[in-house]
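Project outcomes to date are best conveyed with an example. Our students and postdoctoral researchers have been running inverse folding experiments weekly, and each run begins with a structure described purely in tokens. The record below, which covers 248 residues, was selected by the lab manager from last quarter's runs and is presented without edits.
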């Protein structure tokens, strides 16, 4: 339970009425329960949808859900998406890419990446069939948090400082197995075979991104982890949008 609260404290801005003891190695170990934190976020979204959907047009309600997800996570991973977009736009090699990502300022390409990413999530969510909407809301934040585990376990450090380096040093195979077991189980319970296929597609997508960042940067950073998480949220909703029309 302590690891769950550590993960929840790191991945969200939800305040706790108590203090959670956290050693440096606990950060990596807490990745085993990252999907459970994603499921918590999904439950919050599903609960909010239950409350506001009867009173608002679907487009407005779904936009509020995307805003709520960004707010409750403190836009942590959106920051990574913007930084990686700026890094991709910068001319130069590995060191230039890393330098731009570390800059606290957000460039024009980063802003464009943020806007397009949020619009894509919103448009995908608003077109999810209504009868599967709550299941999708529960699943996509969880799947994205698992992608963080997949990206981190076995990765090389692109730089030696930063939280990304701490997580890479503390997460291992046991965290990966526990996180993937939770993700696959929930995928099947929520969406049946569609959920399993979606989880497999996201796994392959994350594996490709991990390989690319290892070649481009020599490893991953905290910004890369956040960026890949956001990309998985987008792809998960898009894949579900396609698969929920299948008769399986």
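After processing, the design step wrote out the following sequence:
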């Amino acid at each position: 339970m302590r690891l769950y609260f550590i993960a929840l404290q790191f991945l969200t801005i939800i305040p706790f009425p108590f203090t959670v003891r956290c050693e440096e190695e606990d950060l990596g170990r807490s990745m085993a329960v990252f999907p459970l934190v994603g499921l918590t976020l999904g439950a919050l979204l599903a609960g909010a949808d239950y409350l506001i959907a009867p009173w608002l047009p679907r487009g407005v309600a779904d936009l509020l859900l995307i805003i709520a997800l960004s707010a409750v996570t403190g836009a942590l991973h959106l920051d990574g998406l913007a930084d990686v977009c700026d890094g991709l736009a910068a001319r130069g090699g590995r060191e230039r890419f890393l330098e731009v990502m570390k800059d606290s300022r957000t460039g024009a390409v980063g802003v464009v990446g943020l806007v397009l990413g949020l619009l894509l999530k919103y448009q995908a969510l608003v077109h999810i069939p209504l009868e599967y909407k709550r299941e999708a809301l529960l699943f996509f934040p969880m799947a994205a948090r698992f992608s963080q585990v997949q990206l981190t376990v076995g990765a090389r450090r692109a730089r030696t400082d930063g939280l990304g380096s701490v997580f890479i040093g503390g997460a291992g195979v046991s965290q990966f197995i526990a996180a993937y077991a939770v993700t696959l189980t929930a995928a099947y319970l929520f969406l049946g075979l569609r959920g399993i296929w979606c989880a497999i597609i996201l796994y392959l997508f994350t594996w490709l991104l991990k390989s690319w960042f290892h070649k481009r940067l020599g490893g991953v950073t905290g910004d890369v982890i956040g960026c890949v998480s956001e990309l998985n949220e987008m792809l998960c909703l898009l894949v579900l949008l396609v698969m929920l029309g299948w008769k399986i």
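The chain has a mean pLDDT of 87. Residues 2-147+155-243 form one domain. The training component of this project remains on track.
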